[in-house]
């Protein structure tokens, strides 16, 4: 079953329907567990392929029990064991090849399970209040089919609050309508927009051959740079739209993972809007502890901003490296960390040079914001070469143009992104300013029905015409 | 989430749906869908207008299923999907040519062209068709003047040609050029005639039952649902809007290596060919045997050529094919069959190799060559024909009686 396919949506809707037959938490949990197990069964047919995953889950639960019962003083050993087994199961290339399991086994969603298990271990270790997570609740939390494949990474307490509440959250006609609209929007993003952008990206890659005229190569490179971030946004955020809506129909609120990321006017802000649950997780469990630890060791006030920059670099480097096991992802990590660190240094420098008020004035200047938005998009687009391409492809693409020509391309991308994104923000603000007493007309339920009906029809027609499966959810692979 | 979004969502969550909205909202949804369809079809119909009458003013159903023949001295306008509306003017014998039927000026070397819609020149004026351009290209390549009488007709698939090959005699050919397409091969097996199907009953209930029987046949419920779904999707895909959208959507160039080929005739790009394709090829070989036997009996040299399908041309142009695919597989099979019968095979496929974006020489939706494609194909054919050993040999009068496909 493809992750954002018609079948997946139908499966999720059926599970939601069953779940709502009773408000009892036992019933709802039973349905969620059954749906999650059936979902796993649909993804792989032989039980033996699930053994390593089952082992990983048991290891996590064992660690959790030991911390809960006070058998071990600190969660550190459990955390280290979980990290080690995760790295081993994911076959990171720095480990000896001979140590790996050499039969095909199921690792889909392992990264997201890993984050959830670590979160439980850390929180249980840190918690002063005693709490117990039962095996059933643990399995429901880690294997929940709506978050299994690509997140979002939900905190356990938020999950438990909704899932195990005796009084589940309301699900009226208005909410159902909103979720159905969101499913249609997500389906359209993944199956139509992402598919079209993927095709255009593939075509552009073919047009970078040195034998082709320079103008064609220029255009192809321009497209290659701008299309991938847009594709990935549609692909990932579309899937997230679908699962958040399905979970809400099952009376569970999943955290948002995207908040109009291309509206961000700085790289730091961008990462507050893109894959929010991952960056929040890493900020909570890497950035904050690391900064505190460094500040304890280096108490100099003058050094504190630089320590913050360093911790930002480490955190976002890890985000980059997490995405893959090859050396391309190390560069991707360096570029993410570098982007955020340079952004922070730039902010510090400006604040130092202009003073706080001067910097605030500049940061609220619409032209500064627009160019910042364009630059943020351009840098993000640049880093993606080390995300989607192999070294051979990167060499081929970079050889398609000379250094001066590349500079021209990036300048063009920056300018275009600045203008297009500024125009988009302006248009959005204008449209949302048309209001009635109930709020903006565009977000009224009538407008939403018009929007969802036309988008649904378009999605159906385009899916037929495209006549090919949508590209897989990219984040499924991580 | 931005504050504006969050606020509007919360408001909607809290608001109890007024009773009128239970009727109003679905109504708005249905109306939106209806308006979208109506407006988009109107726009698409304006960009790609469809002919009102179609071909039925000029073409009649023949004796065997799928066999059509032109009505003498008729003119009609027709287009298929994204082709422009084109005039089809048929001569006294119902052929799409300006030439006088049954007469040949003395001293002229005449080629008679056979084939289906590619040979007819679907979607283009007669002066742009391969049949019109080929004599000029031959003259340019070799200095020889030839005339070409086009007997191509819609659905003139191999079994139809085998049955009616003797008709070429009336046009006094010095050679016959049989233009094949992969689709002709798919249609190589004679379909069961519509006459054998049970007649459509009158009355609402009887007709509904008859329709259900036609749809379901021996299918399981799941198969029937899948078939209905495919039919529904097929109907969506055939709307003017779908036609327009196909032109707006980007095509996956890298898919032409075989990753996503589902077009007409694309089954023949797979290697090795599966049993069904083998069956088609065997059927073609048997039709070809009948045709070549008749041609030999008439002492007319028979030349056969294959015009590649759109995806085949694109695959040749791309210069690479995924494992399990080859743009030459069908070509090789046909050449073997044609040479086995002692006829001449005109291979134009190598000319497509490395031709940039070869798919642009075809209509995107219906897959026939467009006028640029016809020009290119005519030139490729001329290049190969003038170098063929038997080209230019005049036909001798027939010495024996002719065995026809009708006798099989």
Detailed description of the structure:
The complex is a heterodimer of chains A (478) and B (408). Chain A has 478 residues and is mainly alpha-helical. Chain A has helices at residues 6-19, 25-43, 51-68, 76-89, 110-126, 135-143, 156-163, 173-206, 214-249, 267-273, 276-297, 304-322, 327-363, 366-383, 385-388, 391-399, 403-432, 445-466; strands spanning 435-436, 439-440. In chain A, strands 1-2 form a two-stranded antiparallel sheet. Chain A is globular. The two termini of chain A are 18 Å apart. The mean pLDDT of chain A is 93. By secondary structure, chain B is of the alpha/beta class. Chain B has helices spanning 3-14, 21-47, 117-120, 130-142, 158-164, 182-186, 204-216, 221-237, 240-248, 275-297, 310-318, 329-340, 349-352, 371-385, and strands at residues 59-61, 68-70, 75-78, 86-89, 109-115, 146-150, 175-180, 302-306, 344-346. In chain B, the strands form three sheets. Chain B has a five-stranded parallel beta sheet, with helices on both faces. Chain B has a two-stranded antiparallel sheet with strand order 1-2.
């Amino acid at each position: 079953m493809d992750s954002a396919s018609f079948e997946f949506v139908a499966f999720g809707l059926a599970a939601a329907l069953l779940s709502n037959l009773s408000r009892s938490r036992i019933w709802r949990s039973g349905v969620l567990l059954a749906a999650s197990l059936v979902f796993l069964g649909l993804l792989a047919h032989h039980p033996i392929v699930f053994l390593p995953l089952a082992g990983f889950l048991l290891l996590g639960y064992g660690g959790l029990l030991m911390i809960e019962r006070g058998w071990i003083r600190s969660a550190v050993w459990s955390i280290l064991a979980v990290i080690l087994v995760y790295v081993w199961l994911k076959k990171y290339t720095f480990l000896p090849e001979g140590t790996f399991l050499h039969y095909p086994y199921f690792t889909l969603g392992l990264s997201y399970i890993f984050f959830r298990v670590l979160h439980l271990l850390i929180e249980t270790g840190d918690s002063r209040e005693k709490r117990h997570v039962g095996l059933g609740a643990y399995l429901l939390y880690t294997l929940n089919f709506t978050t299994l494949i690509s997140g979002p990474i939900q905190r356990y307490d938020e999950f438990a609050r909704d899932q195990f509440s005796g009084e589940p959250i309301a699900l009226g006609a208005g909410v159902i309508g909103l979720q159905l609209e969101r499913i249609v929007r997500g389906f359209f993003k993944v199956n139509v927009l992402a598919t079209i952008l993927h095709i255009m990206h593939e075509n552009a890659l073919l047009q970078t051959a040195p034998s082709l005229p320079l103008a064609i190569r220029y255009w192809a490179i321009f497209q290659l740079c701008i299309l991938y971030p847009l594709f990935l946004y549609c692909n990932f955020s579309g899937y997230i739209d679908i699962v958040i809506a399905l979970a809400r129909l099952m009376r569970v609120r999943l955290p948002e993972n995207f908040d109009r990321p291309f509206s961000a006017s700085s790289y730091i802000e961008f990462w507050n809007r893109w894959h929010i649950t991952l960056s929040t997780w890493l900020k909570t469990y890497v950035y904050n502890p690391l900064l505190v630890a460094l500040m304890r060791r280096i108490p100099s006030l003058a050094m504190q901003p630089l320590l913050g920059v360093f911790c930002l670099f480490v955190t976002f480097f890890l985000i980059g490296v997490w995405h893959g096991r090859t050396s391309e992802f190390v560069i991707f990590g360096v570029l993410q960390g570098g982007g955020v660190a340079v952004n922070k240094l730039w902010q510090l420098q400006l604040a130092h040079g202009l003073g706080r008020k001067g910097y605030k004035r500049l940061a609220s200047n619409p032209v500064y914001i627009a160019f910042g938005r364009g630059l943020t998009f351009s840098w993000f687009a640049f880093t993606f070469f080390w995300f989607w391409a192999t070294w051979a492809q990167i060499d081929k693409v970079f050889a398609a143009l000379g250094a001066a020509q590349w500079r021209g391309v990036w300048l063009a991308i920056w300018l275009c992104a600045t203008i297009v994104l500024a125009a988009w923000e302006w248009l959005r603000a204008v449209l949302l300013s048309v209001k009635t007493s109930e709020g903006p007309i565009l977000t009224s339920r009538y407008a939403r029905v018009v929007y969802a009906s036309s988008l649904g029809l378009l999605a159906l027609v385009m899916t037929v015409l495209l006549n090919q499966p949508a590209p897989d959810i990219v984040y499924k692979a991580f | 989430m931005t504050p504006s979004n969050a606020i509007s969502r919360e408001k909607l969550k809290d608001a109890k749906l007024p009773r009128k909205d239970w009727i109003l909202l679905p109504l708005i949804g249905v109306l939106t869908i209806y308006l979208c369809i109506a407006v988009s079809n109107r726009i698409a119909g304006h960009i790609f207008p469809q002919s009102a009458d179609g071909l039925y003013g000029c073409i009649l159903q023949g004796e065997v299923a799928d066999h059509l023949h032109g009505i003498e001295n008729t003119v009609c306008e027709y287009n298929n999907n994204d082709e422009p509306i084109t005039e089809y003017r048929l001569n006294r014998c119902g052929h799409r040519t300006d030439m006088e039927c049954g007469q040949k000026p003395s001293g002229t070397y005449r080629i008679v062209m056979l084939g289906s819609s590619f040979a007819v020149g679907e979607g283009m004026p007669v002066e742009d068709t391969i049949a019109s351009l080929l004599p000029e290209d031959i003259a340019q390549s070799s200095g020889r003047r030839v005339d070409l009488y086009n007997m191509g007709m819609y659905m003139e698939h191999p079994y139809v040609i085998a049955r009616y090959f003797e008709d070429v005699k009336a046009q006094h050919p010095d050679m016959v050029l049989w233009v094949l397409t992969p689709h002709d091969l798919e249609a190589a097996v004679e379909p069961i005639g519509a006459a054998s199907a049970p007649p459509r009953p009158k009355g609402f209930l009887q007709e509904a039952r008859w329709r259900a029987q036609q749809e379901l046949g021996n299918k399981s419920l799941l198969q029937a649902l899948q078939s209905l779904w495919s039919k529904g999707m097929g109907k969506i895909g055939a709307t003017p809007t779908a036609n327009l959208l196909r032109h707006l959507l980007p095509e996956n160039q890298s898919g032409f290596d075989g990753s996503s080929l589902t077009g007409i005739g694309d089954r023949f790009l797979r290697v090795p060919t599966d049993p069904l394709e083998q069956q088609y090829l065997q059927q073609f070989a048997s039709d070809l045997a009948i045709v070549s036997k008749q041609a030999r009996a008439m002492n007319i040299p028979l030349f056969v050529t294959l015009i590649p399908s759109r995806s085949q041309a694109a695959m040749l142009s791309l210069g690479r094919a995924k494992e399990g695919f080859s743009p030459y597989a069908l070509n090789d099979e046909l050449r073997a069959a044609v040479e086995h019968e002692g006829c001449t095979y005109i291979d134009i496929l190598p000319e497509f190799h490395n031709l940039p974006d070869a798919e642009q020489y075809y209509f995107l939706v219906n897959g026939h060559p467009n006028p640029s494609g016809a020009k290119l194909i005519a030139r490729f054919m001329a290049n190969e024909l003038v170098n063929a050993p038997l080209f230019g040999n005049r036909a001798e009068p027939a010495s024996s009686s002719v065995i026809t496909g009708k006798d099989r």
